[in-house]
TrEMBL record:
The species this protein was found in: Bradyrhizobium rifense
Name the record gives this protein: ABC transporter ATP-binding protein
Sorted UniProt keywords: ATP-binding, Nucleotide-binding, Transport
Family: Belongs to the ABC transporter superfamily.
Lineage: Bacteria, Pseudomonadati, Pseudomonadota, Alphaproteobacteria, Hyphomicrobiales
Gene Ontology molecular function terms on file: ATP binding; ATP hydrolysis activity
Source organism superkingdom: Bacteria
Domain ABC transporter, residue spans: 30-267
Known function: Involved in beta-(1-->2)glucan export. Transmembrane domains (TMD) form a pore in the inner membrane and the ATP-binding domain (NBD) is responsible for energy generation.
Length: 279
C-alpha cells in the first residue's frame, strides 16, 4: 500500500448522496449510502449526431471493468463526461456518491483520468513531473517522493527518472502520465486505451500496476480494443455500440447469453456489434 494511503481523500459528508434502494414490504423505501464506485444514469451527448445515447452504467467498488466497442461507439465520450472533461447534454454521474456534475472538484479528488493521448511536461524529468502533480494535490514532497519512486519503479521507468521527458517514446510518456494520474492515490481510475502502443514488457508493467491497485481496493474502468486484455483482466465487460450499452457481464455471463460456452470475446463482440448495426 502506498505510504500516504491513510491520508486518502475522504468524501465530505455533505457531498455524499443517499440512494433509494428496494422498497421494504411495507412500502417504505430504505435509504443507504451509495456503495457503487460509479453510477451513470441517462448520460447523453450529441455532437453533429448522437454519440452517447441515454447510457446507464454501474461500476461496483473494487471492480475492474472493461468498456469495449467499435470505433466511434462513444466510449471515450462517455469516459470524458465521467471525468468531468465534457459536459453531458443530459443525465447524471455519481462517483462514490458524489454528484460529479454538481461537485466536480470533490469528484476529481477521488478519481484519476488517463487519456489515450496523454499530455506531460516535456522539460521535466518523470520524478519532477510527479512531484509537480503531487504538489497540485497539496501533497508534500516528503510524502510524494517515495510514492513517485515506487510508481516509476513498478512501471520500469526507474533508470529514466532523472531524464527529461522530451526524449521519451510514446509508450514511455504514456507510463509517465499513468504514474502522474496515480500519485494522489485515487479510488477510481479511468483509463482510455492504456495499453495501446505499449511493448510487451511495458504492457506487463502497466497490467501489473493496475492489478495491484484493484487488489488494494481501487476501482478501474478502462476502454480497450485489445479484447484479450478485457477477457483476462476485467471482472465485468460492457459492450457499447452506437452510444448504448448492448451487453454487460462477466465473460461467462456474456457467453451464456449468447448460448456459446466456449466462444472467445472477439466472436461475442463481433456478433453483438453486428446485431446492433442490423437493428
Ligand atoms: N469533439 C467532438 N466533436 C464532434 N464529434 C465528436 C467529438 N468527439 C467525439 N465525436 C464523435 O462522437 C462519436 C463517438 O466518439 P468516441 O470518440 O466517443 O468513440 P470511441 O468509442 O471512443 O471510438 P474509438 O474506439 O475509435 O476511440 C463519434 O462519431 C465521434 O466522431
Amino acid at each position: 500500500m502506498l505510504e500516504f494511503a491513510a491520508a486518502r481523500f475522504t468524501v465530505p459528508k455533505h457531498l455524499r448522496v443517499m440512494v433509494a434502494t428496494d422498497a421494504k414490504p411495507d412500502g417504505v423505501a430504505v435509504m443507504k449510502p451509495d456503495s457503487s464506485a460509479l453510477e451513470v444514469l441517462g448520460l447523453t451527448k450529441r455532437f453533429d449526431r448522437l454519440a452517447v445515447d441515454s447510457l446507464d452504467l454501474t461500476i461496483h467498488a473494487g471492480e475492474f471493468y472493461a468498456l469495449v466497442g467499435p470505433n466511434g461507439a462513444g466510449k471515450t465520450t462517455t469516459l470524458r463526461m465521467v471525468a468531468g472533461l465534457l459536459r453531458p447534454d443530459d443525465g447524471g454521474v455519481s462517483i462514490f456518491g458524489i454528484d460529479a456534475l454538481k461537485n466536480p472538484v470533490a469528484a476529481k479528488q477521488v478519481m484519476a483520468w488517463v487519456s489515450d493521448e496523454p499530455m506531460i511536461y516535456d522539460k521535466l524529468t518523470p520524478l519532477e513531473y510527479l512531484e509537480f502533480v503531487a504538489g497540485l494535490w497539496g501533497i508534500a514532497p516528503s510524502v510524494s517522493k517515495p510514492v513517485a519512486e515506487e510508481l516509476l519503479s513498478s512501471l520500469g521507468l526507474e533508470p529514466h527518472r532523472h531524464e527529461r521527458c522530451e526524449g521519451f517514446s510514446k509508450g514511455m510518456r504514456q507510463k509517465v502520465a499513468l504514474a502522474g494520474a496515480l500519485v494522489h492515490d485515487p479510488r477510481l481510475i479511468i483509463l482510455d486505451e492504456p495499453l495501446t502502443g505499449l511493448d510487451a514488457v511495458s504492457a506487463r508493467h502497466v497490467k501489473g500496476l493496475l492489478n495491484e491497485r484493484v487488489q488494494a481496493g481501487c476501482t478501474i474502468i478502462m476502454t480497450t480494443h485489445i479484447l484479450e486484455v478485457a477477457e483476462r483482466m476485467a471482472d465485468r465487460i460492457g459492450v457499447i455500440a452506437a452510444g448504448r450499452l448492448v451487453a454487460e457481464g462477466t465473460l461467462t455471463k456474456l457467453r451464456q447469453q449468447n448460448g456459446h460456452a466456449d466462444t472467445s470475446l472477439e466472436d461475442l463482440f463481433i456478433a453483438l456489434v453486428t446485431l446492433q448495426e442490423a437493428a
